[in-house]
Amino acid sequence: MSTQLIVVVLVGSLVALGLFLLLTQLVPAPPALGPALRRLHPVAGIAPGRDTMGSLKRHFRVPYADLRLLDRSPDTYWLTLGLSALFGLLIPMLFGVAVLVLRLPVPATLPFAGSVLVAAVSVWLAHRDVITKAQTARGEFTRAMCTYLDLSAHQVLGGHGPVESLSRAASVCQGWVFTRIREALLSAELQLRAPWDELKVLSRDIEVIELGDLADIMRTAGSEGANVYRTLRARADSLRDQLRTQALAEAEVRTNKLDIPASALILILLVLMGYPFLSRVLAQ
Fold it and tell me: How does pLDDT run across 215-239, given as a tens digit for each residue?
């Protein structure tokens, strides 16, 4: 009876903790001015993405670049992992409570061992979800860079300077990619910095190499006064060829994966067609 009481108290505590975490997410929080101020006034010597959640986080590899690309904070990432682990623990534990109450012939340790396994799998799935979404967003950012390179080249060809070309090209298009670029350009303007330096920092933060290439090309135009129209067009064409090659490779991989179910279906049909004949031969 004491074991059942301990299990009920433990499950009740976990449920209460989960409800508390959910309620804290529903309550409106004050504006997060800290990240905005750090973007406007970066401090050298401090590693990006560090927070004050404790030394436990330093033992895990957090995808800081992916979080910055998705515009999520490390605190949100850890909260998501915690909630995933909590729900993973609750489901098998509720089954364990039912086993103890109903006195089913099931080992009491099995549900608790399963709860640890389910919690670990839930945390891994939540982590993989962030990485998968970041890969999709990074691919979308890379495809948008083709348009941004072409627009910047046309602005340069129209006689605009490198700073104005970057700004005018970003203001033409819509979408979250160009919103991030416009924010970087605005941050550079407010800090009286060169826009290509800010774009270079953004490319390192979110790990989009193509944006850094554009920043390097425009830095050449800004510092040396070089005509970068042909360079921008060549980089855009090269990026399109690269994306086209990747798309063809992915299509080939998916096509090869379709051969597996097709082969299995043919094998099943052969078994179904040959079974009557084999049954007659064996019957004789």
Answer: 999 988 876 666 788 899 999 999 9
187-200 pLDDT, tens digit per residue, is 999 999 999 999 99
Cβ contact 145:206 at 8 Å? no
Distances in whole angstroms, Cα of residue 167 to Cα of each of 156, 182, 191, 265: 11, 7, 16, 56
**Residue 103 phi, psi dihedral angles, 5° rounding:** 55, 50
**What is the rounded distance in angstroms from the CA atom of residue 209 to the CA atom of residue 136?**
15
Q: Do both 85 and 106 map to the same domain?
A: yes
pLDDT in tens, 114-132: 778 888 888 999 999 999 9
- Backbone φ, ψ for residue 11 (5° rounding): -65, -40
List of residues 6+ apart from 244 with CB closer than 8 A: none
Mean pLDDT, range 70-87, rounded to an integer: 89
User: Which of 169, 142, 140 is closest to 228 using CA atoms?
Assistant: 169
Residue 253 lies in a domain: no
Token output for 79? 């909260």
Residue where one domain finishes, among candidates 83, 102, 135: 135
Give the residue numbers spanning the domain of 96: 2-23+51-135
Distance (Å, rounded) from C-alpha 110 to C-alpha 118? 12
Q: Is residue 44 part of a domain?
A: no
